[in-house]
Write a structure and sequence with these properties.
Elements (H helix, E strand, L loop, with lengths): L2 E5 L3 H13 L3 E5 L2 H10 L4 E5 L7 H11 L4 E5 L4 H9 L4 E4 L4 H16 L6 E4 L2 E4 L4 E4 L2 E3 L3 H12 L7 H9 L8 H14 L9 E4 L3 E4 L5
Parallel strand pairs: 1-2, 1-3, 3-4, 4-5
Antiparallel strand pairs: 6-7, 7-8, 8-9, 10-11
Length: 227
């Protein structure tokens, strides 16, 4: 039975979502604020978090950032706002998807099931080493020649996806779908920006990358030399 943590301070919505999830045979815990959510993330150990952005003690963005420091938990952000910047910020901080209030329960359930499927299908590979760069997926740790490299949650997700599929070329649209969310409607240049930041951190010379390389006209891949 998969565990889902619902974080929302609106009682009617929280209770409705909890009821529906339990009918679908999920184990559910709920929180009304960020502090409780962070505590439950440690004790309940959810497989997925449904996280409202507007919370009474801290923002959902702040909760998402704190959650991803030690353990990456699949997260769907819930927002009443329509501004693209709120959605982009959530995705940059480690969220996998988002829904905007008011939403249809059927749509929410479809997003939850899709995200759980994506999470379950990840390979169980624990570590990859490539030309002095060591990536530990279990601990979310990246080192180059024994020097620790600090990445944001989104940078690590992008690196992990590509490193798990070494020498596979990903188009920008594929990376947007797999890392930023299958219905992400933002500018695809966010991929190029994230790649550029990542290269500055992991490459010895970001102008001549050996880890994340460009396949001209197609996209990017991890390893295999410049094409």
């Amino acid at each position: 039975m998969k565990k889902i943590l619902v974080v929302d301070d609106e009682p009617s919505l929280r209770d409705l979502v909890e009821l529906i999830l339990k009918r679908e045979k999920y184990e559910v815990a709920t929180a009304v604020d960020g502090k409780t959510a962070l505590a439950l993330a440690d004790s309940f150990k959810p497989d997925l978090i449904l996280l409202d952005i507007m919370l009474p003690d801290m923002s959902g963005h702040e909760v998402c950032k704190k959650l991803n420091i030690h353990r990456r938990i699949p997260t769907i952000m819930v927002t009443a706002k329509h501004e693209t910047i709120d959605k982009v910020l959530g995705l940059e901080l480690g969220a996998d998807d988002y829904v905007t209030k008011p939403f249809e329960i059927m749509e929410l359930m479809a997003r939850i099931k899709a995200l759980l499927r994506r999470s379950n299908s990840e390979e169980e590979l624990e570590e990859v080493t490539h030309q002095g760069l060591k990536i530990n997926f279990t601990n979310m740790a990246v080192n180059r020649e024994d020097r620790e490299i600090v990445l944001t949650a989104k940078e690590f997700q992008l690196l992990e996806l590509m490193a798990r599929n070494m020498k596979k070329t990903f188009s920008r649209d594929e990376l947007l779908q797999k890392v930023w969310g299958y219905d992400y409607m933002g500018d695809s240049r966010v991929v190029d920006i994230c790649i550029a930041r990542l290269r500055k951190k992991i490459e010895e010379d970001s102008a001549c990358p050996v880890h994340i390389v460009t396949v001209f006209g197609l996209g990017y891949r991890f390893g295999g030399g410049q094409v």
